[in-house]
Queue: 4 jobs
Job 1
Amino acid sequence: MTALEGARLEVDEALKAYEACVEREEAEYREEYERVTFMEYEAPAPDPCAEAFLRLVRAVRAYEAAGGHRDDLALGASRERVYAALDRG
């Protein structure tokens, strides 16, 4: 397995972990999900999916460092948020 293939595998695993976290949170809060996530954004409260998201961002950075391009990744609904985090540095 090349470094690029390994980095892509890590992106795929990190994305699955992040999506699973979001799904669990959505299931827990149901119709209150948007209100709860807004409150997490507005107040200094722990975000249960923050670590999973940071792992995803780090994995995409490693993929780019290995020679890959972020546009080649299927990040789905997370794409814009991941790109924004990458562009912020």
Job 2
Amino acid sequence: MGTLIVAMVQFLQSSGFSRGELARYAGLSAEELAEPEVRLSPSQMQRLWQLIQTRILPTLTFSRQVRPLITRHLARGKVKVASVAAELNMSRYTLYKKLKEENLTFAGLLEDVRREQALKYLRDSNRSLSEVAELLGFSELSAFSRAFKRWMGKSPAEFRAAC
């Protein structure tokens, strides 16, 4: 754990935070933070991680932050805008607005993720087409087939046969 703490502190210091600021933020003394073997509580680790995220996430495009959330929600079943927005600690309106700044829509991003996942799933010949459709959140195989044909110009079965 000490190595992780040292790496976190080094990253944050390279991002402009002083050791004193980091210690205060984590609820430690500067001496405690200076010792690599110090054990942080889960809440102290979380505070440092949140600080790291404030430095990393703005460097990513917003859509790159949303894509993995859509993928994860898709794997669990239906993707709901409100759930994705809640994970990002924002309203649906803000999510829509931030995507619009990149000339994207949530529906378009969801479709892109579905298409990418469909290609991945279809390369696995152990999955039936119905299973692929279900994994992608389609209510029926026919709805998936229509969408896939629109995306790729051929049916899922034709695509799989060509792989």
Job 3
Amino acid sequence: MTGLVGLFSRASKDPNQKKNNEKFKEFKKLAKQKKYDAAIKSGTEYIKKVPNNHDVLFTMGGIFYLKKKYKTAISYFDKSLEIAEYDVDALLLKAYSHQKLGENKRAIQCCQKIQEVDPKNKSVSELLDQLNS
């Protein structure tokens, strides 16, 4: 039964998948080790080959947030939210980024979206209190 091909094939259709998986692991390791500049370089190369990897897009956004590059962070969060529209973590970091840029209206919009799926989210309540004060 190992001779099946097509729909049931175990072989990857993407000849670069193994290389991409190694790149992904390298990126995650660099991010975990807080080697952010190297992680950004690795992540950027990976995204060129695999543009819709939610984990990489979200992590890249997180790294740029930590580096206080909020506009760049938001662009990565937006891309990750195209894949997972109600990712609470991405929405929350996007809201914090907007807050840091003084874009309170946009931050509030992110909070409202989070509340649609997680109405009791404590971080959102605290952020909304700050934004509305």
Job 4
Amino acid sequence: MITKYKVMCHSLLLGGVLSLVLTPAFAGNPYGSEEEGTAGKQEMHKEMHKKMFQKLDEDGDGKISEDEFEEAMEKKFERMDKDDDDYVTQEEWQAAAKEHKKEHKKEYHRGETQEGSEGQQREGM
């Protein structure tokens, strides 16, 4: 049972990591030119992965222990299991993905240039 739980937790983490990596790839180019966009995306991904690592490394020793990893997965599962029935349904999974996407946009698209924001406002007028 514990092994099955660990596999499930690791699968959930992999899904979360993949969604963090793939979401920006489909979000368009908020950085202007293609060259700037590629460099900007790389920097954004580096920063995002650094923050994720630091969040998982609770004791700050520069390494993620199995206990730290499993604790993070348990917390993630608990957040996703809205009805506390010890199962994550497809609906709960999709709701968590939608919430993650919303949080990702909030956190990682604040840095858009003023010029880009103004340009978007002008186009909308």
